[in-house]
Amino acid sequence: MSRRRRALWGALREDLARRTQAIRTALRPGTETVTPAGWTVAVLALVLLVAGPLLHWRELLVGGIFLTLVLLLAVAFVVGRQPLKARLDLARERVIVGERANGYLTLSNPTSRRSRPLVVEFPVGQGRAAFDLPALAPGALHEELFAIPTEHRAVLDVGPVVAVRADPLGLLRREAHLSRMDTLYVHPRTLRVEGSAAGLVRDLEGRTVPKVSDNDVSFHALRGYVAGDDRRHIHWKSSAKTGTLMVRQFEETRRSHLLTLVSSRLEDYGSDDEFELAISIAGSLGTQALADGQRLSAASSHATLPSAGAQRFLDGLSGLAYDWQAKRLLEVTRHLGNDELAASVMVLCVGSGVSITELRRARQFLPVDTRVIAVRCITGHEPSVRWLGDLGVATIGRLEELGVAVRRVAA
Predict the structure, then answer these.
(1) CB 358 within 8 A of CB 332
(2) What distance in Å separates the CA atoms of residue 114 and residue 84, rounded to the nearest whole number?
(3) What are the pLDDT digits (tens) for 249-304?
(4) Residues facing residue 261 across a β-bridge
(5) Per the CB 3.0–4.6 Å rule, which of 227, 293, 333, 354 could disulfide with 362?
(6) What is the percent of the chain where pLDDT is above 70?
(7) What are residue 90's DSSP bridge partners?
(8) pTM score > 0.90 for this model?
């Protein structure tokens, strides 16, 4: 199933889970132990036990008694304590897509009696890993090495380790948690922006913008003194010549501040590959800016992403998914916060579903003194750069073409 369908199904499951929360809580004691097969056998046994005497059909009564005995025998397989301890260790908590992610599971029997063979399971994202644990002598250890698939960017919950007791027919199932849950971050693939390509996010310290300020470092002009002005900015020579107090004005300067905005709207992308490319481009530019000591802000169509450091930034991108309620790019740029609007460079990462017309309209809601670059991610497309007034539009088909596109934009 593609990420697009998983996003829609995930939203529907969350809505259904929210609506049925009260019912599931009330039924949890039974549903956690009795499997669907167990409920089927229990209901069938009850029906046969009632129908047999009413219909005077002895075979139905015998069948009901037999199924009841089967259920009672299943109880014998799940009763008792689980005298085990478990430790789950991940070799690395953060990997890049495609890298090997290994883990170690250590189980021990701290009691003075031999443990029974059972099955040990633990969730890995939406999947589940299972191991057959043999009987352990008192004080014995058992180790398992496992590998976690990392073909896709994700935030995977690994664990907790669960000891499972179940009957051979799978009618009853009893679980005991043995360890805490760990988290594995599968970061998107990123590319270091080398050499002159870093000019897109270069340090803008001392670069002036067309805004007049009363307190900065770049001199602009002189004006007449107004009550409340800082006396330190009075230009005494000009004041002596004109006979009135004159005050310096300055042009506002900015330090480099990069904003990466990734559209998470499903309709903005023609395929999952375009979405992944957009995230990789945002990750590459953002980590480059942080490595150069510049300020970074990051956002998607529906949320602000962490950007305090490269690790937290990539963690946030790892969990970014389609949002079926995300607004169009035009609405997102219209409602950007003050911190985002203070950026000196904005990079809008979108897919083939966003037209040039929509990009130009979105540009109108952004500050005129902010450098805005739109990156359209279209897999298989030849790299190109075009300027629409003060809006730069770069089209990229592969992550390896990012350096070429940025050099053209920064030229």
Answers:
(1) no
(2) 10
(3) 765 555 578 999 999 999 999 999 999 999 999 999 999 999 888 889 999 998 89
(4) 299, 348
(5) 333
(6) 87
(7) 103
(8) no
Question: What phi and psi, each to the nearest 5 degrees, are found at residue 389?
Answer: 70, -120
pLDDT tens profile 81-117: 778 899 999 999 999 999 989 999 999 999 888 888 8
* Amino acid letter, 104: Y
User: CB–CB of 351/264 below 8 Å?
Assistant: no
- CB distance 94 to 313 below 8 Å: no
Q: How far is residue 61's CA from residue 32's CA, in Å, rounded to a whole number? A: 29
Give the H or E element holding residue 280. Answer: helix 272-291
Cα distances (Å, whole numbers) of residue 396 to 208, 287, 410 = 31, 19, 15
Query: Are the beta carbons of 107 and 121 closer than 8 angstroms?
Result: no
Write the pLDDT tens digit of every residue in 368-382.
888 999 999 999 888
- 297-338 pLDDT, tens per residue? 999 998 899 999 999 999 999 999 998 888 999 999 988 877
SS3 label, residue 234: strand
The domain ranges of the chain are 3-78, 85-187, 195-203+255-410, 210-254
Q: In degrees, to the nearest 5, what angle opens at C-alpha 131 toward C-alphas 37 and 87?
A: 120
Please enumerate in sequence order all residues whose Cβ is within 8 A of that of 180, keeping only pairs 6 or more positions apart, or say none: 88, 159, 160
C-alpha span between 253 and 102 (Å, rounded): 49
CATH annotation of 195-203+255-410 = 3.40.50.410
Query: Is CATH 2.60.40.10 the classification given to domain 85-187?
Result: yes
Edge-to-edge strand list for the sheet holding 85-90: 85-90, 101-108, 141-148
Angle subtended at Cα 4 by Cα 361 and Cα 313, rounded to the nearest 5 degrees: 70
Q: Do you find a cis peptide bond into 168, omega within 30 degrees of 0?
A: no
Cross-strand pairs, 385 = 394
